[in-house]
């Protein structure tokens, strides 16, 4: 230790991906392997309100008035949170930024701290395949066994392989139209962010239709390239 001021090199990642792309699973794996901390906007707000920090008290007043918490307040909460010791190995941001205005504010905050976005990772899915994957799901109401019309059908139509039950349950929001709408909404909301991080040279696109460990290996590759 020479006592010199060293730059803050804790990585800051953003994971982008539509519902069903496995974002939560990959974030947990990154936490376990690298000691990263995932920071989701909802958790950050709740924790700041519970801790009664200045920004947390402000957020509480805004929410109690039925209003949306402003970007400034979220940035203030994030500023406090990033300074905590457990964030020293790196963080994964979840749910923030959602707009390019927020992305710019985040860049400013990170620059104050000598940090930057190391990688904005977009988990890329094939929309049509995603609709097939999600919309074909059903479960046995008797024993909870999961099935899929194409990938894991029951041996005899409508009869559970495990318990012989015939009460099959399909979630209303797992139908093809709803899944397609969710994906379209995701793309519409995320496109400006993808463009933003692409223009900054921070975007990495990772195909996310394969097995979990394959996707995880590709994320590891992205991280090692970013660290180099
Ligand atoms: Zn069953």
TrEMBL record:
Keyword list, A-Z: ATP-binding, Cytoplasm, Kinase, Metal-binding, Nucleotide biosynthesis, Nucleotide-binding, Transferase, Zinc
Residues annotated to bind ATP: 20-25, 137, 210
Primary residence: cytoplasm
CDD domains, per the entry: ADK (cd01428)
Domain of life per record: Bacteria
PROSITE patterns in the record: ADENYLATE_KINASE (PS00113)
Self-association and partners: Monomer.
Entry protein name: Adenylate kinase
High-level lineage: Bacteria, Pseudomonadati, Pseudomonadota, Alphaproteobacteria, Rhodobacterales
């Amino acid at each position: 230790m020479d006592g010199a001021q060293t730059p803050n090199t804790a990585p800051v990642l953003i994971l982008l991906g539509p519902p069903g792309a496995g974002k939560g699973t990959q974030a947990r794996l990154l936490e376990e392997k690298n000691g990263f901390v995932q920071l989701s906007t909802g958790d950050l707000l709740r924790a700041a309100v519970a801790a009664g920090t200045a920004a947390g008290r402000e957020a509480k007043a805004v929410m109690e008035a039925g209003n949306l918490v402003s970007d400034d307040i979220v940035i203030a909460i994030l500023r406090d949170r990033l300074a905590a010791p457990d964030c020293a190995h790196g963080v994964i941001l979840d749910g923030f930024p959602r707009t390019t205005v927020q992305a710019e504010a985040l860049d400013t905050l990170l620059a104050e701290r000598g940090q930057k976005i190391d990688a904005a990772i977009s988990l890329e899915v094939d929309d049509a395949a995603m609709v097939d994957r999600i919309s074909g799901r059903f479960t046995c109401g008797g024993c909870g066994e999961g099935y899929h019309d194409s990938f894991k059908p029951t041996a005899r139509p409508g009869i559970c392989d495990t318990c012989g039950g015939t009460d099959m349950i399909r979630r209303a929001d797992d139908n093809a139209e709803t899944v397609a709408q969710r994906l379209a909404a995701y793309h519409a909301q995320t496109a400006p962010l993808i463009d933003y991080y692409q223009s900054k040279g921070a975007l990495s696109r990772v195909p996310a239709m394969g097995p979990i460990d394959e996707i995880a290996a590709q994320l590891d590759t992205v991280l090692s390239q970013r660290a180099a």
